[in-house]
Amino acid sequence: MNRDREILHKYFDGDMAAAEKEAFLQRLSSEPGLKKEYDAFGKALRMVAESPRPAVPSAFTQEVMKRLPPSAIPLGERIRLFLFAGRTLRWNMATALVTVLALTVSLLVVSRQYVPPNGPIAALRPAAQESAATVRLNLYAPQARKVTVSGDFNKWQVDADVMSRQDGGVWTIDIKLKPGVYSYMFVVDGKAWVTDPDAETYQDDGYGNKNAVMRVRT
Known about the structure:
Blueprint: H1 2-12, H2 18-30, H3 32-50, H4 60-67, H5 75-84, H6 93-113, E1 133-140, E2 147-151, E3 161-162, E4 164-165, E5 170-177, E6 180-188, E7 192-194, E8 201-204, E9 210-216
Antiparallel strand pairs: 1-5, 2-3, 2-6, 4-5, 6-7, 6-9, 8-9
């Protein structure tokens, strides 16, 4: 059961690979227990997304920062203060040698402690970028005042992806998505959940309606 909950979290967070997501969707149709948890999870996420959010006081961040304990001074800052802070020193050869030795040891410690992410040569090679495809979604809704897209790619947020009205009452939006399988629905005027009539395929959402399903390919 705990493993299924981990899988549900991974699915709704959008962290599943394409093959893993397809296998999960197949399990939903054959495992009633998993389907029941999926429906409950989806309902909870929608309730959170649609619930009003309390306003944060303007002085909230300032009050939190006041209560934080003072942070320790980093090694680099301590060296800078030691070298450049205003003070009167009696310089002689012994003092100069001790200072140079202390500075050299400190720099060696800092250089040995630093390891670039993923190994020493990680900074020398460019990070690989996973290609994304642009998907266009359309909905004919001439009477609507606002239409958005809500799906697992934006964690079912109602106002995350707002569509643009075109001539003739058609609403459209272009979304960049990584390759994979995504469930989604249109939200008209913030209330009515509408299934895409032009979707590739559909899936029961557990509330008497069907989610549209699309497969994004590169």
